[in-house]
Automatic annotation (TrEMBL):
Pfam families: Peptidase_M28 (PF04389). Keywords: Carboxypeptidase, Endoplasmic reticulum, Glycoprotein, Golgi apparatus, Hydrolase, Lysosome, Metal-binding, Metalloprotease, Protease, Secreted, Signal, Zinc, Zymogen. The keyword ATP-binding does not apply. Residues 1-19 form the signal peptide. This is Carboxypeptidase Q. GO terms for biological process: proteolysis. Transmembrane segments: none annotated. Homodimer. The monomeric form is inactive while the homodimer is active. InterPro entries: CPQ, Peptidase_M28. GO terms for cellular component: extracellular region; lysosome. GO terms for molecular function: carboxypeptidase activity; metal ion binding; metallodipeptidase activity.
Length: 510
């Protein structure tokens, strides 16, 4: 997630937007149901433990969508279904993964196959070859020497001890700092840095193509992480026409560094490994889960308030904090609204997105199909009926505020909505800042009000985000309960307003 900090005349705009009285009795009903009769643990079991890893178009993703559709229907939501958003590509299943160093002594390694990697066609074994390729001229020294070889690539970075805690919550001063950001340029990347990144990516593609052409048997790559946690999420091969490549395993940096030190000191290193994977080519469409609570007001029920989070995950673990947590919260929020018997005036629609990890595909496809095309700025009739979208996708941490995405006109409204929640949202902040990397951006790109809540980090960046440790144990259930109450309150308040939320100006066609 990258933040773009903007300074806008918030105080001037605040005076132009009048807040409405909040229905305090309704908010108390939401709190009581969400905190005393929560179902987040049951939902978490279904989405995390029972569905398993939810890589887009995988069997685990399909299990999760079927559960969500049935559960939402059972709670009384209408039109619950999986909705195609466009072509995604192939699904992929990991059926076996094993690697160990066998010489100079035996040691099992921690490793995960890259997503959409090929199989090794049985067990492979042999000497490990470390490549030293810095330019295309270096290809020559390996030409004809890599047939059946096991290639190892060292990770960048070091493994010194860190004295920072893995799990943290925001302090009051940190939240206050978000509220008053320092202005800076929208991009922290210079043209030179972007050019270097593109060049490195293009060179990496050439190296992979060379290794594949030479017929290597396996690539072992050390990845970022420490203490057995692997940040493994590299996308490859999901597009239907992707050519076959070399099987790749991502392993702990400690494992690859061990082999490198041995090799550099003249000790021959051998490994044995097996990767067995399978593609799913039957249905290339991508799917979102959609359901709704129809509005009760005849004049407002055609207008929409949306809430959502991405349902897909990576494959190294069960995607508990990224992003079953967001889906658990959103499902619990609509359950609360139904269980309390509240009657939102506008239609409340929940969306659990697919394809987010490969580029926000599910939400972008949905927005294009329902509201408009960002490239041409051709808008649909539904565009004028969309009030707001609320997103959760920053882990398991409780809500501490909200990012306004530069929409200063909503600040006084959100301030009023947070006041009845002061007993469960402590030291909160509302910041004009943008935040990125998740599905609210698909709405914001068309100037539809789209918001991501500020959440306590907990272990998101250190232990769980795209890792092999993103399991049920990493969920903070009480935090999920709090989030569901906040989301349900914001969604209900949005649905009850006399007017839809104010919008930013439409972007220009680029």
């Amino acid at each position: 997630m990258q933040r773009k900090l903007l300074i806008l005349p918030a105080l001037l705009l605040a005076g132009m937007t009048l807040a409405q009285d909040v229905d305090l009795k309704a908010i108390e009903k939401i709190k009581k149901e969400g905190l005393e009769n929560s179902k987040v643990e049951e939902i978490a079991f279904q989405l995390v433990d029972k569905a398993g890893p939810r890589l887009s178009n995988s069997e685990g993703y399909e299990r999760a969508t079927k559960y969500a559709v049935k559960q939402l229907s059972d709670w009384g939501l209408e039109n619950a279904a999986t909705e195609p958003w466009g072509e995604f590509g192939r699904g992929w299943e990991m059926e076996k993964s094993y690697i160990a160093m066998t010489a100079p002594y035996y040691m099992p390694f921690i490793a995960i196959p890259k997503a959409w990697t090929e199989s090794t066609q049985g067990e492979v074994s042999g000497k490990v070859v470390f490549l030293d390729i810095k330019t295309e001229e270096d290809f020559a020294k390996y030409k004809g020497k890599l047939k059946g070889a096991i290639i190892a690539i060292k990770p960048s970075g070091t493994q010194e001890a860190t004295f920072e805690p893995d799990a943290v919550r925001y302090t009051a001063s940190e939240l206050h700092g978000m509220e008053h950001p320092v202005a800076r340029e929208n991009s922290t990347y210079t043209p030179e840095m972007l050019a270097q990144y593109r060049a490195a990516r293009e060179f990496g593609t050439k190296v992979s193509a060379f290794i594949a052409a030479e017929g290597a048997a396996l690539i072992i790559k050390g990845v970022n992480g420490r203490h057995g946690t692997l940040f493994t999420s590299s996308p490859r091969g999901y597009l239907k026409d992707t050519p076959e490549g070399i099987p790749e395993l991502e392993t702990a940096p400690e494992n690859v560094n061990l082999m490198a030190r041995l090799s550099e000191n003249g000790v021959e290193v051998e490994v044995e490994a097996e990767v067995k994977t399978r593609y799913r080519n039957e249905d290339l469409q991508g799917y979102n889960v959609i359901a709704e609570i129809p509005g009760s007001d005849p004049s407002l029920k055609s207008e929409i308030v949306m809430q959502g989070g991405h349902l897909d995950s990576w494959h190294g673990a069960n995607g508990a904090t990224d992003n079953a947590a967001g889906c658990i919260v959103m499902m619990e929020a609509v359950r609360i609204l139904k269980a309390t018997g509240l009657q939102p005036k506008r239609t409340v629609r929940i969306a659990l997105w697919g394809g987010e990890e490969q580029g926000l595909h599910g939400s972008r496809g949905y927005v294009k199909n329902h509201f408009g095309d960002r490239e041409t700025m051709e808008l649909t009739p539904e565009y004028e009926k969309m009030s707001a979208y609320y997103n959760i996708d920053n882990g398991t941490g409780r809500i501490r505020g909200i990012y306004l995405q530069g929409n200063a006109a909503v600040e006084p409204i959100f301030n009023e909505w947070f006041l009845p929640l002061d007993d469960i949202v402590d030291d909160r902040t509302i910041t004009i800042s943008n935040t990125g990397g998740t599905d609210h951006q698909s709405f914001d790109a068309l100037s539809l009000p789209g918001f991501q809540f500020i959440q306590d980090p907990i272990e998101y960046r250190t232990r769980t985000h795209h890792t092999n440790m993103d399991t049920f144990e990493r969920l903070e259930l009480d935090d999920l309960k709090q989030m569901a109450v906040v989301v349900a309150s914001f969604v209900y308040n949005t649905a009850q307003r006399d007017e839809m939320l104010p919008r930013k100006e439409l972007p220009k066609v680029e």
